[in-house]
């Protein structure tokens, strides 16, 4: 009555437990709070260019502060990035100047934006999957 060793459910269960203990299975834990590498930072935060292109505001925005970065490994790298962006002194038709200074207090406008960005850094591929922004005044002053 020869039952093969893999047909016995108890042996199969033991083999799976041992494999998991020895680390043969990749553990996907979802998004983890991680600093974004400097190499990926500039390319990933280029989403602000997409935001400026889609916005009807008079002035261009730029990133003021990286608030939080979370990372998840999938077929590439997914980031959930929370940034504070602010109006610059450059108007929409002045897209050439990437180092525009921020507006003075009188015209200051800041937003807190959370973006889901998918990257495959080893082939230099970056895509903005989702982006939502709220007025920084409504989000809270403790984010700086």
From TrEMBL:
Residues 35-122 form the Cystatin domain. One of its GO terms (molecular function) is cysteine-type peptidase activity. InterPro entries: CSTL1, Cystatin_dom, Cystatin_sf. Residues 1-25 form the signal peptide. It comes from the Eukaryota. Gene3D superfamilies: 3.10.450.10. The keyword Disulfide bond applies. Belongs to the cystatin family. Keywords: Disulfide bond, Signal. This is Cystatin like 1. GO terms for biological process: G protein-coupled opioid receptor signaling pathway; signaling receptor ligand precursor processing; transmission of nerve impulse. Transmembrane segments: none annotated.
